[in-house]
Structure prediction request, 162 residues.
Amino acid sequence: MRSPLKKSGLVGSIATVLASIAVAIFMVALSARRKAGLNTVETSLFNVLILGLGLSGSYFFGRVSSQLPNARSAFRRLVSLYASMGRFLETIETRREVLRSDAVEGRVSLDRALDTLDVLDVQIREKLQTVDDAVADWRDVAPDTVADLELGLKRNKESQQR
Prediction:
């Protein structure tokens, strides 16, 4: 569901564009009817109308674009998640080497294997929390899109469980 701010910003933006087009068509039609073109008063009025429409358009588009700080934080979180996944891959490689060095005849002790899995488990849980936070950030920016994606994921999960 769209927020009231986004709806009013969109409606205002569309109204501004339509009003600009209507004024431009009117002014072109008016100047085409006269051989001498627009007089000084008409030109001034046209400039005032264009100024007003430009300011109102800036206002409405500015309200809609004020949601961008949320997008910046969501993007930063995704960059952080990407970097942490790289560190996670390094940890897996390090743990793999430790297990190989501790192996006796190709086998490691159960305690060593469980310790390694515990370390990886903690890191995976950290990444999942970061993903949850990133989804929450994107929910602030694009709630309809996130809701659709979550619904699709839920359906996929349910179909895989059957």
Observations:
- The first helix runs from residue 4 to 33.
- The radius of gyration is 30 Å.
